[in-house]
Amino acid sequence: MKVAIVHYHLKPGGVTRVIENTLLAWKQGSSEIDTVVLSGRPYSGVGINNNRIVDGLDYAGPSVNPNAAHLLKSMIDQAKDGLGCIPDLWHIHNHSLGKNPTFTQAVALLAGKGHKMLLHIHDFAEDGRPENYLALNEVYHQTFPTSPQIHYAVLNHRDFSFLKVLLKDSESSVHLLANAIPANDLQNISLPVKSYLPKNLILYPVRAVRRKNLGELAFLSVLYPEKHFANSLGPTNPKFLPEFQKWKRFVDDLNLPVSFGLAEEINCSFQDMVGHADAIISTSIAEGFGLGFLEPWTFGKALYGRNIEEITKDFTQLGIELGHLYDRLEVDLDLLDEPKNLMPTIDLSLNEYYSYYGKQKSKDMSLTAYESMVRNGRVDFGRLNESLQKQIIKRVCHSPSQIELIRAQVDLNTIGKEQVSSNHEAVSRNFALKNYGEKVLGIYQRLQCEEASSIKFADGQKLLSCFLRPSRLNLLRA
Which residue(s) pair with 259 in the sheet? Predict the structure, then answer.
């Protein structure tokens, strides 16, 4: 079977890692699949041997490469060059994300030619990415092609249920395809203590982006001053850099035990940080797959912090114990400088958020959002924006009674070696590389058996309605 795998770029991490793991799984198995990987940028890694650069495939705005037919021809030409013939099927990643609308249109043209394809969606323009959604404006009506020879894959049950809504009454199939987690060199690591790293380190091994909720990491340091909290890397997105610098100054001014961008401050390796850390933490408020809830156990480390139930329920059903994570971190509304201003802030945010997506909110939506954030006079800290989070941190710093009350909600001490080992085993069993490779191969084989038929296009507004709900509002994403 000859397969063309397509993604905008092959930068380290993310989708590139998924592609590398897929190829590694097949290399370790016995499947006879011949692949070429197409991308818009050169590849600097070692896991992909047969790849081709396609001009115009990289991230681009609507006007950069307006000729979808030309892009499609380049994709087909490069696929033929890498495989020696037209692919039996195309495995296309994140075509609907809005990072390059011409690519989205090229996929629609490819579908129209009757090619068999797996459209593998990791992230959604409809999920807190209004700029991406707007970029798709001219091609959105053709973003989701359907026919028996076009299948979709998503990472979790939430997205699976949303795609079922989108593709209802269509002839396309949807597959739940959770990412693989290969065995890694950090498994049960035992490294010498690094004197240049903070003692009692609780590590958040992520690059700084807004949805990672760095303010909550600072807040936890108020609750647990005997520990040192750190995230690993600063932002690459220049839009977030000013806020990141503000957080660094904020924790310095309050003398909190926090290091933002630890690896860049001390110039230490990821392995050193993980090996030195007492535990791993996550305060993220939105994830696609949820790797951060699984990988720490394979390092032999306990995980603490915020739960994202719509993502982690997939994991707990597989025997991975995450009950010690908190779903909400509730603080008294009176800790805000002006509690009465929270409702107007929510109302304004909802107005702006819905307008970004070309929608109007109804009158009752603000109350729905407010009631999902505030319960019995207490608000979930992680759903507030940076300004409101800083107000609360300043006040709690000087209130031992509040520290004691809030700390009771956050467990950072109780996970023992037995639970670490049990979760490690469950992750290894359920997310093994071999299993992933076999599942992808099974989807390919199903696609091979599908009869070609004319295509239709699903109404993307159905998908948008699944994501665009006031009860899902988070001010860090508005």
Answer: 230
One fold for 2-180+432-467 and 184-326+415-431:
yes
CATH code of the domain occupying 2-180+432-467: 3.40.50.2000
- Of the candidate ranges 65-74, 103-112, 344-353, the one whose mean pLDDT is the lowest: 65-74
What type of residue is 296? P
* Tokens 């300043």 -> residue: 394
Residues 239-243 have a mean pLDDT of 93
Query: Is the CATH number of domain 184-326+415-431 3.40.190.10?
Result: no
Give the residue extent of every domain in the chain. 2-180+432-467, 184-326+415-431, 329-409
Q: Which secondary-structure segment (H or E) carries 418? A: helix 417-430
Which are the contacts of 415, defined by CB distance < 8 A and separation ≥ 6? 279, 302, 303, 304, 324
Kindly report the pTM of this predicted structure.
0.91
pLDDT digits (tens, 9 = 90+) for 365-374: 999 999 999 9
Helix/strand/coil for 327 = coil
pLDDT confidence of 63, banded at 50, 70, 90? low
